[in-house]
């Protein structure tokens, strides 16, 4: 079994790996030719110029200031210098609040670790239970609850500390929820004008035989929101067009590459094969081939645009509806529009860069079926993944391997190899298994039909967390226990099996410590090195770049990746809360992770990442809820563990902990969550009044006119335009619709011109 020395060797390996990454980063980041890789955010903001444009030839590529190499860790204090308000202005509220997750971890676990090591570790260590048992154990297990004899009064210490840890965790969560909610409201109040503040997304527009979707939307909102409706933009199914545009861009990139290649050596025209990946097929002139393909795609794009704009079937029963005020948009987004709750469904529109346009073409009625299919698929993915996890966990037990393959015993018993297998290999093998998982889960979320990138990432993050909870956490405990205690299970009665499982739960701390070091320490250090973007940038820069614009596009700043990063953080919250009472020795490893990750990601947010969207920290209720779930799981596991220790007197007192925790969660949900799902009308009105005072002549229609046009239409000849000549400040007038029932609508309509009828007739048709 693993000893403290083995863990020390593993820690040394991971510390050296992390240090190597930091040294490599320190050297690479100060080289002029890597400046765009490690500081792309400042280039995108136009606040940094390339060092390649000045100095001698050598200085353009290599940093010859040897003093800068001695200050290779100066980026750490520099990352901590920017104040949080300035960070919000620089990177957005999402990035600032994401960093608060790491701070929350430090606030929770540093005091808990101090109490655990001063009170619980001495209580656990001063027993000899494991030494007199037949169980397989390690030196770390002697510091855990497993080392306390059955029925001991010392379990009251663990009970009291469980209450202390719970109350402290809830206190920190309460303070953080209040702070983040206040930050969100303040951010929304002080934020610059954005199209999504005035716009709602309308889904499931009912069909009408007499009017198009555009006419129907206009008339409905002119009647039911006559004082606030401004304009709308219908949603087109432009997925095929988007694919053609993407294919044309790819062909153009290859044409640029071959033209650059030819310009460097005009003695020979570049040749390519037309088959898969250029591996086989007819040999053709690469420049002529791609020129012909681009001409073909240009014609197909023009034809597809014409088809979309003229074919009513290309218009989906959905629209982005914009209002004259934030107050009007807030009322529409947060109220039921029709007496039939399944039609005219409204919600806040995502900001334009957050819209996931492909999914807007999915019929709303099919979303429920899609989500049912994905729920079943996720169930099978989660539980069938237990098979490789079981194999990985078997690597954590040297004795198990030696029993299964005794001829490898001489090699495995070599001290360094044994320490490497137990301290490094299991974590890295599991990491490789999990590397493809986020992409699969994101594809599932896209299939479900969410209309924004932020919603896709939050759903994917939820599933990733559930997957890790079942497979990485529960799977590691269950399969690990089975491998470790197989011999004991065979030779003991069935009544003793629950006791063996209960004792074995803390024994998996060794595996989780190695996982934290590999996935957390070395993983975070590898994140700052940005090896993949570094390689790809230089390949693109050498083969593809011919202008400054091309060089800017070659930069890959990336983003936080909420769908992968946040579930990983939550796994460490879960491990820390579960093992705080059971095996406190795991806590320092988690604290090091949170501290290191906070500094690294703060540096990346300041210098590298360019967020795809801004949700104003809409994800915080998910973060809070998952930490609460981890807290409840830790309480239930402790309850089960103590029940196997014959601590009957203390177990009933633990029942109140989950009840109190759930009550606390419900309190926070009612007190703070509305700030994340609704926009207060008072705040909306205040911001509208302030804006009208500052900009009395603002033409909001021009500002919103093209905000929610599909990207493939922007700048093209077939760009959709709903512009009307009327000034939105004019008083309403009555004009008829095309409907055979001769109903009319207030305000000027671009779709009808016959004589007006009474407004009461319109309301008879449209009143919800």
Automatic annotation (TrEMBL):
Protein name: Calcium permeable stress-gated cation channel 1
PANTHER family in alphabetical order: PROBABLE MEMBRANE PROTEIN DUF221-RELATED, RE44586P
Gene source species: Davidia involucrata
Membrane-crossing segments per the record: 6-28, 108-125, 155-174, 372-396, 416-443, 464-483, 571-601
Location of the CSC1/OSCA1-like 7TM region domain: 370-642
Pfam entry (one): RSN1_7TM
Family: Belongs to the CSC1 (TC 1.A.17) family.
Domain of life: Eukaryota
Coiled coil: none
InterPro entries in the record: Csc1-like (IPR045122), CSC1/OSCA1-like_7TM (IPR003864), CSC1/OSCA1-like_cyt (IPR027815), CSC1/OSCA1-like_N (IPR032880)
Domain (CSC1/OSCA1-like N-terminal transmembrane): residue spans on this chain: 7-176
Domain CSC1/OSCA1-like cytosolic: residue ranges: 197-359
